[in-house]
Amino acid sequence: MVAHLGQKIKEEAKRKGISVADLASQTGKTTTAIYDIFRKEDLNTDVLRAIAGVFEVPVSWFFLEGAGNVQQVNHGGTKNRNNQVVGTHPEQDHLKGQLAACEDKVKSLEREIQLLQEINDLLKGKK
Q1: Which long-range contacts does 55-61 make (Cβ < 8 Å, 24+ apart)?
Q2: What's the whole-number average pLDDT of the chain?
């Protein structure tokens, strides 16, 4: 089961050393709104996008079980402006692999189209 979103946000902000005031400022919210967010189990996507930007994680991170700590899912990540490690996570790695496979398939299909065009041109010349 996915963790309570507000609690997850609160824990990640604390882990990253991001104060409520900083989180409010960086998301365009008030500190009162941030405290309200900490109490909510569900949030709209606009709020999640804003907070994901501050945490430098994809929105999907909020829904990964066991992703309460970005370093737990670090696979050769980079450092953010606070010199904290922000890594990719298994979903990103999986999607990168799928993208590479799709790009290979596109190249293969482009080559097949080229060959079919050449065959078509040859057949037209024989008629």
Answers
A1: 55/12, 55/13, 55/16, 55/18, 55/86, 56/80, 56/86, 57/86, 57/89, 58/89, 58/91, 58/92, 60/91, 61/89
A2: 79
